[in-house]
Amino acid sequence: MSRVHVVGAGAWGTALAQAAAFAGHEVRLFARDRDSARDVTLNHRLTRYLGDIDLAPSLVAYSDYSAFEGADLILMVVPAQATRATLEAIGPERLAGLPVVLCAKGFEAGTNRRQSQVLSEAAPGAEPFVLSGPSFAHDVASGRPTAVTLAGPDIGRAEAVASLLASRSFRPYASDDLVGVELCGGLKNVYALGSGAIEGAGLGLSARSAFLARAFAELGRLIGAMGGQEATLGGLAGIGDLALSCTSDASRNYRFGVALGEGASVAEIRARGIGLAEGVYTAPVAQALAEAFGIDAPLVHAVNLALSGAEDISAIVHMLMTRPLKREG
User: Fold this and answer.
1) Which residues, at least 6 apart from 163, have a Cβ–Cβ distance to it below 8 Å?
2) What is the CATH superfamily name and number for domain 179-321?
3) What is the rounded CA–CA span in Å between residue 131 and residue 163?
4) N or C: which end of the chain has fewer CB within 10 A?
5) Residue 242 and residue 163: Cα distance in Å, rounded?
């Protein structure tokens, strides 16, 4: 048994805390909201996000970091835009020498930093890992079979941490491609927005399938240019997560894209309370990175046009369909 501290008691953070409990560990969950912490500890549920799913009775939640000492493993499961502030609130001295698994899928707006880069700046003594792959919180919390990728600084350390989180319902595959896994996790949210917009605009399944295939190709170009491994693209963090996020109503990014395709503005969609869609923050970062590395990324550009409201969906589709013809690849 190890002591696992999970920072962030939203749906995904609580689900991963449940997964760690399934793996037989002592788990402490740190929640920003006192009511959520009380619900988890006393009622063994997180009704606000996970409904009537029963949580492990051993799972204990705290609303501050007073009980943070003594961890063997940290899971950081706060939104990507909150990672730096949360790390600073915990304090780099508490994280020094500890493996920290970054579970947010996105880049930091303003700096364009990946999550592991944010960790290296805010807590340079921590050891970075990244968890990504096709996984929804309700499935993980319910104990449904889920497989993900866990990347670390080297394959041996990744295997060691993956073995800590493995259980009969949660299977992490080890990787040493931190960069590629992070890029896949963040960029797939951008493509999920575009795929949802196609659905919302009523363009048909053929168009959505074509978009998914070309997104896979574009993602491959971006990963290759930025130092990721080709094998990651064909794995759980790559095509696995891309396919799930681009086709499922359970994906917030996909649902956000559907509303976008139906003609709603970003402000109107946010007012509906769809929830956090990391792709909205990641899209401009993805475009900036593509331009910086000289990568042709027309789908990323199209999603940014849709988010900005500068062009409607029909004009964006016309732009994509009338680009110069090229060989597939």
Assistant:
1) none
2) N-(1-d-carboxylethyl)-l-norvaline Dehydrogenase; domain 2 (1.10.1040.10)
3) 13
4) C
5) 25
The CATH homologous superfamily for domain 3-176 is NAD(P)-binding Rossmann-like Domain (3.40.50.720)
Q: What does the DSSP assignment read for 200-228?
A: HTT--HHHHHHHHHHHHHHHHHHHHHTT-
Segment 85-96 mean pLDDT:
96
Q: What is the pLDDT of residues 209-256, one digit of tens each?
A: 999 999 999 999 999 999 999 999 999 999 999 999 999 999 999 999
Q: Are 77 and 45 in contact (CB under 8 A)?
A: no
Domain ranges of the chain: 3-176, 179-321
The 10 Å Cβ neighbour count of residue 249 is: 10
More confident: 274 or 294: 294
d(CA 288, CA 285): 5
Give the 3-state secondary structure of residue 151.
strand
- CA proximity to 194, closest of 148, 251, 239, 149: 251
Q: φ and ψ at 15, to 5 degrees?
A: -65, -40
| C-alpha 115 chain-centroid distance | 10
Judged by DSSP in three states, 27 sits in: strand
The DSSP bridge pattern shows strands 146-151 and 127-132 to be antiparallel
Q: Which residue has the tokens 């304090």?
A: 91
Give me the count of residues in the chain: 329
Consecutive H or E run containing 282 = helix 278-292
> Which residue has tokens 């574009």?
218
CA dihedral 145, 151, 152, 154 (to 10 degrees): 110
| Cα–Cα nearest to 211, from 116, 303, 133, 142 | 303
Alpha helices in the chain (DSSP H): 11-22, 34-38, 47-50, 83-90, 92-95, 115-122, 137-141, 155-165, 178-200, 205-225, 230-233, 241-245, 252-261, 266-271, 278-292, 298-308, 313-321
Containing 62, the helix (H) or strand (E) segment is strand 60-62
Would you please indicate which residues are annotated as catalytic (active-site) residues?
188
